[in-house]
Amino acid sequence: MAAPPNNSAASPPPGPALAGAGGPAASENGPALKKVWPANRWDPRVLILQCAVVAGLLLAWEAAVRSGFAPAYLYGQPSGIWLKAVNSIASGSLLRDSWVTFEESVAGFLIGGVLGTAAGLALWISPLAGKVARPIIVALNGVPKIALAPLIIIWFGIDIGSKIASAAILTFIVSLITAQSGTSRVDADLLTLMRSLGANRWQTFRKVVMPATVPWIMAGLRLNVGFALIGAVVGEYIAAKEGLGYLVYYAGTLYDLNSVWLGIFALMVMALVLDGAVTVLERTLRWE
Amino acid sequence: MDAMTPTAPVLEARNAGMVFNPGTPDAVEAFRDVSFTVAPRETLAIVGPSGCGKSTLFNCIAGLLRPTSGSIFVGGNRVGDTAGHVGYMLQKDLLLPWRTVLENVVLGLEVRGTPRRASEAKAKDLIRSYGLAGFEAAKPSQLSGGMRQRVAFMRTLALDPDVILLDEPFSALDFQTRLLLQIETMSIIREQNKSAILVTHDIGEAITMADRIIVMTHRPARVLAVHDVELGQEDRDPVNIRENPHYNACFKQIWSELGAKVAS
Ligand SMILES: Nc1ncnc2c1ncn2[C@@H]1O[C@H](COP(=O)(O)OP(=O)(O)O)[C@@H](O)[C@H]1O
Ligand SMILES: [Mg+2]
């Protein structure tokens, strides 16, 4: 036995400071595991305050309209939005529009997220490809995606395909960039360690680079919730017969602001649902 | 110690030199004409000013970089483009935070393709013999700095290398933990009949742990002096060693050699 904890603590002068050394001394006084507190303990006050803030804003809005301070035809009106919501839920049209946009966003989100992440990670495996791709990524990221609209319509038509494509393009680029940045920020000493253990590039990728990049990939997916909805809604603006983007756009041309707001609120609910799904995924993959 | 008996060295550097980006305006000569040997079961310490090229020398020994002149032999074989023939421990513990202690210790065995059951049995033995039993399932974030460095050392030992390279392994630890780990690491190396090279800028650490000390010059590093540490195992208690006259003489000598070279 080479200096097991019990002997080693005996050789230097014993004292209270020794326990602070962590190491072997700490394991004598019971488990030295640090307590890790749950970061997000559920706190009912948060939910109550969130409801209060939303209710307060809606009430102020309603009051501003009723007092004549803000005309309803310019700003809409919460009570009017509520009536619209009740009607369009009853007729099924809100649910149908929401479902269409939901399908388009989720399909685009999955396609763009999977392909973008795979491409971003692949650029680590082949450093040459990474170097070749760098200016292309910058150009793709920088171009206003709306400029791609004519191509998307020509290639994917005016049905659901073009909306999925535009959501997929936006999310692809975000996932590509976040995954690639994640791989390039892996501690160089970790790569040195893996090489010193005799690991090849693929082993280093599987055991170090990929897990180390998970938080980056998740951050990209979180951003992509918004980008997938943007992609789908912009696609619906350009040409569509259904969907929340269509609802918002069409109602806007008619100055039906309550319907515009209804579409916006439905999109917000959808964003929260998708973000919740990403959080669940993040929990199952998290290691921090 | 049997450093005197004529045995083939486990490691030998022959006129090794390393220049980064040779022939360009960015050329940096890290070390030049470095020769030394390490005998079986010998621990060699290398001290030298920071930035002089010690880590670069280690990377060459580990096969991660190729020296631009001269050559390095480990176990009689010239170090080429392959790695994994020596154990290499860096200043940072470099534990993978998503792996448990046990999973970190088996990392090298996993890379080597050792069957899971065999590598876990081996890792558990190591963990048990070196006082971390009960922590197999802990995550690195739950451990103190000293325990983390111990796990990193076990990950190095798991591959059973003949030569272990230690690059300032204790410099991030507090003083007391450092002293504890010095004796602990030293006795493990001796008990397992390993050879080791320790890079440190702590002269006391070098004398406490090593059989021989090489002092390097500033960059490009060359061997400035070699000292034998004539202390028995029993003299090397980190507290009492400080009263040993040989320790003090050695310390003063190396201090002046380093001081002269750093100042110039
Ligand atoms: N890949 C590299 N390219 C160019 N110069 C390098 C590289 N790695 C290290 N160096 C330089 O070589 C010198 C020695 O570095 P290093 O071996 O880390 O020193 P030490 O470990 O002795 O502190 C330093 O001046 C450093 O800047
Ligand atoms: Mg160094």
Question: What does this molecule look like?
Answer:
Chain A is mostly helical and 288 residues long. Chain A has a domain at 95-235 and 269-285: MetI-like fold. Chain A is built from 14 helices and no strands. Mean pLDDT of chain A is 86; it is low at 1-31. Chain B has 264 residues and is an alpha/beta fold. Chain B folds into two domains: 1-85 and 163-264, Rossmann fold; 91-160, no CATH class. Helix content of chain B is 34%, strand content 22%. Chain B has eight helices and ten strands. In chain B, the strands form two sheets. Chain B has a six-stranded mixed β-sheet with strand order 6-7-8-3-9-10, sandwiched between helices. In chain B, strand 4 and strand 5 form a beta hairpin. Chain B is globular. The two termini of chain B are 37 Å apart. Chains A and B meet through helix 2, helix 3, helix 11 and helix 12 of A and helix 3, helix 5 and helix 6 of B. Magnesium ion binds at residues 54-55, 167 of chain B. The site of magnesium ion has 3 residues of chain B, from helix 1.
Write the layout of secondary structure elements.
The complex is a heterodimer of chains A (288) and B (264).
Chain A (H helix, E strand, L loop, with lengths): L4 H4 L7 H5 L2 H6 L15 H23 L5 H4 L2 H14 L1 H33 L1 H16 L6 H8 L3 H25 L3 H9 L4 H38 L5 H10 L3 H29 L3
Helix pairs in contact in A: 6-14, 7-8, 7-10, 7-12, 7-13, 7-14, 9-10, 10-12, 11-12, 12-13, 12-14, 13-14
Chain B lengths: L10 E10 L7 E11 L4 E5 L6 H8 L7 E6 L2 E2 L8 E3 L11 H5 L1 H6 L3 H14 L15 H13 L5 E5 L7 H17 L3 E5 L3 H7 L2 E5 L6 E6 L16 H19 L1
Parallel strand pairs in B: 3-8, 3-9, 6-7, 7-8
Antiparallel strand pairs in B: 1-2, 1-4, 4-5, 9-10
Helix pairs in contact in B: 5-6, 7-8
In short:
The complex is a heterodimer of chains A (288) and B (264). With 288 residues, chain A is an all-alpha fold. Chain A contains 14 helices and no strands.
How many strands in all of chain A?
A: 0
Q: Biggest protein-protein interface?
A: A-B, 43 and 51 residues
- Per the CATH scheme, the topology name of the largest domain in chain B is Rossmann fold
Report the radius of gyration of chain A as a whole number of Å.
27 Å
Low-confidence stretches of chain B: none
- In CATH's first tier, which class of the largest domain in chain B applies? Alpha Beta
Give me the number of helical elements of chain B: 8
Shape of chain B: globular
Spell out the CATH superfamily of the domain at 95-235 and 269-285 in chain A. MetI-like
Strand content of chain B: 15-25%
Largest sheet of chain B: 6 strands, mixed
Helix content of chain B: 25-40%
Radius of gyration of chain B: 18 Å
**In CATH terms, what is the architecture of the domain at 95-235 and 269-285 in chain A?**
Orthogonal Bundle
The main sheet of chain B orders its strands as 6-7-8-3-9-10
Instruction: State mean pLDDT of chain A (0 to 100 scale).
Output: 86
Share of helix of chain A, binned: over 70%
- Span between termini of chain B: 37 Å
